[in-house]
Amino acid sequence: MNKVDPAQHVTPANGGEPRLSRASVARFSLYLRHLQRFLREGVQTVSSGQLGEALAITDAQVRKDLACLGNLGHPGVGYPASELIAALRHRLGIDREWTAVVVGVGNLARALLRYRGFEQQGFRFVALFDADASKVGQTLDDLKIHPTDRMAEIIRKTGAELGVVAVPVEAAQSVADALVAAGIRGILNFAPTALRLPAGVSLVAVDLAVQLEQLAFLVHLTHGPEKLETH
Amino acid sequence: MNKVDPAQHVTPANGGEPRLSRASVARFSLYLRHLQRFLREGVQTVSSGQLGEALAITDAQVRKDLACLGNLGHPGVGYPASELIAALRHRLGIDREWTAVVVGVGNLARALLRYRGFEQQGFRFVALFDADASKVGQTLDDLKIHPTDRMAEIIRKTGAELGVVAVPVEAAQSVADALVAAGIRGILNFAPTALRLPAGVSLVAVDLAVQLEQLAFLVHLTHGPEKLETH
DNA sequence: GGATGTGAACGACTTCACAGCG
DNA sequence: CGCTGTGAAGTCGTTCACATCC
């Protein structure tokens, strides 16, 4: 009844490279994070066992994931960290700069802008928008806050590709629609609602309340409510 | 080599209820969210098709997920929304109040405190901590900011069960250790690092940079870099 | 008719086990 | 020897199809 994309295997638009599972991709960013840390610590060769330990998964899993990047590993030695980083970044599509805008300049937006590690990974924020007239015209981290009705114009001018939705729930869908109309290609949604987007516009949603609920559930399980483990 | 909890099926501490897959639990919060919305809109009976459409999954999937809550559905009719909500909340362990503390009073903490929907779902923040002496003693949303060295004392006194880590990367692990030592049972980590926690303390991690990378990858795939689909 | 609950089929992900190489 | 790459096996999750009930 409900039609859903049945393709679980992600096939890159350019035909060449081997298959790639969604689950692997979800871990690529984590590999990247740990590899960069290893490199900072002076470790230049990393084994699947080390990476697995860092992510709390098995070494076999790591090798399977990394296999689709080409034969980067050296038997008996491990993987050269910097090459692996380059390959991962290339495969994730972040071996270039991505530009993004943020709609809704509240505390969350401020947190995002201050967050180290975005520009470090090649992301750059190029514009801010807010519906609140009193915020418009102000500057935050060298970025001017624009009125929402100038979204189309400014997004086109800056060529921004990604949009972050950090507005209250009620406004989220209309903001998303505006972003799509302005030509944005992907949306990161923090509003606790399921956005409806046309095909061709990607979506990643982060619902903070959901995360807390998952945590509560895990705790609920381990120290059960009836059966309290006092040990 | 790397040992990982192999139990993919979650078995509640109290033996009685049927099996429960992790994947289902991940969707329970979302069902809850949509059911509450349905109820607000006056819809009191919801079918698996409606729920599936809301979450963009199949109706069969919805029924499978909901099956482990007992036979709540009425053939030919659907599920009574309020009963389903109660059952989900019970199963998730959020049919009671959970108390939490936040460590690191930056913009993210402010965003969390202002976020509607936490207390609405039964979560209550009872204390804030910060290492910055200039912040200590200040008040945020009626909550006093305490120095980090009083964590053990205050967490015991308030009986807080969950801890939110919203500090810079460098401080994350030591804050987590302190939370664990103070008797916290679950940690929601926003710092971009993999926390090491003892067994018995649950962990949910939200890495914002990882989310943006996932989004970039999705966009990278759909409008490939070489092969641009202008349609 | 319309919708649930569920075994069975299917597909995806993970782990195992081992050949092969440096 | 240590570690990679990979088929094979095993596990988990989703979809299908249909008996069943209101």
How would you summarize what this structure contains?
In chain A, helix 1 runs antiparallel to helix 4 and helix 2 (48-55) crosses helix 3. Chain A is α/β, with parallel strands linked by helices.
Overview of this structure, please?
- The structure is a homodimer of 231-residue chains.
- The first copy, chain A, has 231 residues and is an alpha/beta fold.
- Helices cover 40% and strands 18% of the residues of chain A.
- Chain A folds into 2 domains: 9-92, Arc Repressor Mutant, subunit A (Orthogonal Bundle); 98-210, 3-Layer(aba) Sandwich (Rossmann fold).
- Chain A has helices spanning 22-40, 48-55, 59-67, 81-92, 107-114, 151-158, 169-181, 208-222; strands spanning 9-10, 20-21, 45-46, 79-80, 98-103, 123-130, 139-140, 143-147, 162-165, 186-189, 202-205.
- In chain A, helix 1 (22-40) packs antiparallel against helix 4 (81-92) and helix 2 (48-55) packs across helix 3.
- Chain A is globular and about 60 Å long.
- Chains A and B meet through helix 1, helix 2, helix 5, strand 10 and strand 11 of A and helix 1, helix 2, helix 5, strand 10 and strand 11 of B.
- Chain A binds a DNA duplex (22 and 22 nucleotides) through residues 6, 8-9, 21-24, 47-49, 57-61, 63-64, 66-67, 71, 73-79.
